[in-house]
Amino acid sequence: MNRASSQTVSGMRGFPRADGRKGIRNFVVVAYLVECAHHVARQIAQGYQTEGAQLIGFPGCYPSDYAQRVMEAMCTHPNVGAVLLVSLGCEEFRRGALLDMVAASGREAKLLVIQESGGTRATIAEGRQWLDAALVRAKAAETIPIAISDLVIGTKCGGSDGLSGITINPAVGRAFDRLGDAGGTLMFEETCELIGCQEHMAKRATTPELGRELRAAVEKADRYYNELGHGSFGGGNIKHGLSTLEEKSLGAYAKSGSRPIAGLIKPGTRPPKSGLYLMDTVNDGPVRYGIPNINDTQTITEMVASGCHMIIFTTGAGSVVGQAVAPVIKGVSNSRVYQRLAEDIDVNGGTIADGTETIDDVAERIVAAVVRLASGHPSKSEELGHQEFALSYKTYEPAGPACLPV
Questions:
Q1: From CA 318, how far away is CA 106, in angstroms rounded?
Q2: Reduced to 3 states, what is the DSSP secondary structure of residue 292?
Q3: Of 17, 167, 47, 34, whose CA–CA distance to 90 is shortest?
């Protein structure tokens, strides 16, 4: 991987969008705007997953600025080519504003209101008729060559074990270094799993002011979880060999690589330029709405809302998740779990512990998996039809100017 950031990579092609971004998929999204519309939306999308239809949604009835921003970001994501919104009709989601935003982005968009469309059967029939035509147009869309510098890539870990911090996670970090050197935009997350690493991150910040913001974000996570009476170090981690929160934090931190940290972003905020970014995933203010991220899928959703084309997900215990809008590459820390879940895992990092490969060897395979995905080939979770999506209530204040140095 060289430093020619604008150089296209053979085989990699994308769908050009009006805002200048390029998608590596051209999904047609069916989005429900309250849980009461979920069944109808699911029935519309059912059977079309392999054709490129994806189901997303927000279950809440009451308004949420955070959920509105995430849904707007999802429906105008570069991997999305068209959007069908499904509303019950009496929820407080600002569906008209979302419809207008999608249309203004140059995407095909349609709104179905169940209370005005004749109920369940009539809405499903109208939705499927629209989806049939939209998928045909999506498949016929033009593609253009793309470069690594066109990609935004996130990384996340879940079900970490005692080998995660010395095999697959440092291999992802080494791959992040290579992708960043080639002009890619990269992000890591979960400040609650980086407690104890704040001084290391501050030293990597591009400005002293950003260093203070990175420290403050991790200290906020520590306070929040102490007040909540809950931590990210779970029984599953202990069962699979992790001994302390410090060990888990250092293992998670290894995914970020070694390059300078260019900024601190919040869910839905897009990095303004290439480089490495930390995402703050903990609510601002006092404890509200319970646990900030209810599962790995919600964290992935937040990185996708900030523009990630794909996610590199690492595990030790094993995971099968994908994502509705951005494909997921899954890497595992040990060969035992890889052999058990070979149909679900893309990259085996256990070969490092086995002594048959180095960290650099596995990093090279991760970069190759990124190129393969951006060339239109499916990940394991895509082959199996995974389309996980989770979104709940949260609250954030706007980030200060020190978080994104010019």
A1: 40
A2: coil
A3: 34
User: How far is Cα 189 from Cα 363, in angstroms, rounded to an integer?
Assistant: 20
Chain segment 50-74, per-residue pLDDT in tens: 899 999 999 999 999 999 999 999 9
E strands within 97-227?
108-113, 144-147, 152-157, 185-188
163 DSSP assignment: T
Report d(CA 64, CA 69) in Å as an integer.
9
Owner of token pair 């699979």:
240
pLDDT tens readout for residues 16-51? 999 999 999 999 999 999 999 999 999 999 989 889
| Tokens (6 digits) for 125 | 């029939």
The pLDDT of residue 122 is 98
Per the DSSP assignment, residues forming a β-bridge with 150 are none
Backbone angles phi, psi at 278, to 5 degrees: -100, 135
- Asked whether the beta carbons of 29 and 83 are under 8 A apart, the reply is yes
H/E stretch holding 212: helix 208-228
Supply the pLDDT for residue 363: 98
CB proximity list for 41: less than 8 A, separation 6 or greater: 30, 31, 32, 55, 57, 86, 127
Residue 73 and residue 268 in contact, taking contact as beta carbons nearer than 8 Å: yes
Neighbouring residues of 367: CB distance < 8 A, sequence distance ≥ 6: 1, 175, 178, 179
Average pLDDT over residues 332-345: 97
CA distance 151 to 16: 13
Q: Would you say the pTM of this structure is higher than 0.90?
A: yes
Each residue's pLDDT tens digit, 260-272: 999 999 999 999 9
4: confidence class by pLDDT, cuts 50, 70, 90:
very low
What one-letter code names the amino acid at 173?
Answer: G
Neighbouring C-beta atoms of residue 264, cutoff 10 Å: 25
Averaged over 8-23, what is the pLDDT? Answer: 94
Long-range contacts of 197-203 (CB under 8 A, 24+ apart): 197/249, 197/250, 197/253, 200/253, 201/253, 201/256, 201/261, 201/278
Q: Residue 139: phi, psi to the nearest 5?
A: -70, -25
Q: Is the pLDDT of residue 2 over 60?
A: no
Q: Which residue has the higher pLDDT, 10 or 22?
A: 22
Q: Which H/E stretch holds residue 365? A: helix 359-374
The arrangement of strands across the sheet holding 8-16 comes to 22-23, 8-16, 144-147
